[in-house]
Amino acid sequence: MTPINEQEVQQYRAETKGAAALIHFNNAGASLPPDVVLNTVINYLKEEAQYGGYETEAKYQVTLNNTYDLIARLINAHRDEVAIVESASVGWGLVFNGIDFKPGDEIITSEMEYVTNLMGFLNVQKNHGVVFKVVPNDEQGNFSLQGLEELISAQTKLIAVTQIPSTAGGMIPVVEIGKIARKHHILYMVDACQSAGQVPVDVKEIGCDMLSVTGRKYLRAPRGTGFLFVRKEVQNKLRLILMDSFAAEWVSETDFKIRDDARRFELYEKNRALTLGLGKAIEYALNIGIDRIWQRVQYLADTMRGQLSSIDSVTVHDFGAEQCGIVTFSVEGIESALVKTKLAEQGINVSLAKAISTLIYMNKNKLANIVRASVHYYNTEEEIAIMCRVLKSIAKS
């Protein structure tokens, strides 16, 4: 594998309007889209305005349909196992709430699980008598596979984890968890919200039954885009939460037939311009190579952690043997929200990693809100150095 070289980085930056105006270390929130993605969306909307929505859709139908093939290629799935949705949360909720939970069923998750998913677990706990259990990380901050095995019982209905947590640079070993789930014949669900576009995601290797993804983060797609993977063998086991004539077809005045692919989880009305933008963003990433992107992201994140750790007043909070492009830290004596504001004043975007986002993990480690800086392949070593210089001046003030 050939690493992304400096000439390529400059090309990707030249193809990204925002990269010239600011330093964007909020890719875990929403990446800066490539210009080709922006232009794809805008041009489609212009054609809709000029020629009509249905007429424009008909013109681009082949390209719109190709988005499913691009998603399938990205995650090594079949196109019939893919649904296009508005966000990872929508996709996750559609399949999670489609599971036929019974009183006494158990869900196993990790301490790194995202707040929206935890709320889903609490909801079925309150309304259906479901129990959810949390596998604690070990002393090194790694997910405990042994701990998972110990929590599995005859009542375990679902294992659900977020591969990359919102407020930490660690990662969950989704492939190894998949092997355990298959061994015990347990439904397995992965939130890959922060993973797709940053890390190679292979649903066959992971062995998951369901996987949810957003477009706006590391895929560099527009906001309001995402997709859902549901393994073919599982689709009929999930009830539909919403349904229209796209998800099913009329058989007679008294009956209908649900379609036989994952698009049963979609509704007819969606933003076609954003669908094209999602496809173009995935195509852009695939042309670079996800393996190469992941190599570059790890290099930049390691560089950032190293430089941050050399600043006396800065503490890096990332745990785990394998770490990603999310870097979390705090500055001694200064509220993280103020650090974020002061960096923004210098044209540097970071985000605030709020305790509520991964409450179990944050409470366990006695962390309040911390700063989250997330790198992508179009970022540079120089940008990291500039941020660290600004942080030094903030710490002294």
Catalogue the unreliable spans. none
CATH topology heading of the largest domain:
Aspartate Aminotransferase, domain 2
Using the alpha-carbon principal axes, give the shape.
Answer: globular
**Strand residues, percent:** 15-25%
Q: Structurally, how many domains make up the residues?
A: 2
CATH architectural type of the largest domain: 3-Layer(aba) Sandwich
Work out the helix count. 14
Task: Report the top-level CATH class of the largest domain.
Answer: Alpha Beta
The mean pLDDT is: 96
The strands making up the biggest β-sheet line up spatially as 2-8-7-6-5-3-4
Q: Write down the Rg.
A: 22 Å
Residue share in helices? Answer: 40-55%
| SSE ordering | HEHHHEHEHEHEHEHEEEEHHEEHEEHEH
User: What is the number of beta strands?
Assistant: 15
> Can you tell me the CATH superfamily of the largest domain?
Type I PLP-dependent aspartate aminotransferase-like (Major domain)
Structural class: alpha/beta
For the sheet with most strands, the description reads: 7 strands, mixed
Cα-to-Cα separation, first versus last residue:
45 Å
